[in-house]
Amino acid sequence: xxxxxxxxxxxxxxxxxxxxxxxxxxxxxxxxxxxxxxxxxxxxxxxxxxxxxxxxxxxxxxxxxxxxxxxxxxxxxxxxxxxxxxxxxxxxxxxxxxxxxxxxxxxxxxxxxxxxxxxxxxxx
Length: 124
What we know:
Layout: H1 9-21, H2 45-61, H3 63-66, H4 71-82, H5 96-106, E1 113-115, E2 121-123
Helix pairs in contact: 1-2, 1-4, 4-5
């Protein structure tokens, strides 16, 4: 099992974007972004492991497409694109490459984060 200290730049950016773009649902408007009160250290180990594996597999499956792109931006874009946010691979000016990466990210389906009763972040 990998730990936070051993993950790559792509995965670090993916985790940061996940926390930034997800909210704690603490009020009617959706609440606060998770990164206001939580860090990757607060992600439940099972959820963290799945997120790490998703990033490793996405990178492995799309090695040629990702070659030469910024790892940090690509990790960020993987989270945004797979969850169909209003930004991601498709709007980076990458042309057909952006379309291919968008299709690849959409194939992973969405992944939502939430704060559990244990005050750790879980995913579904």
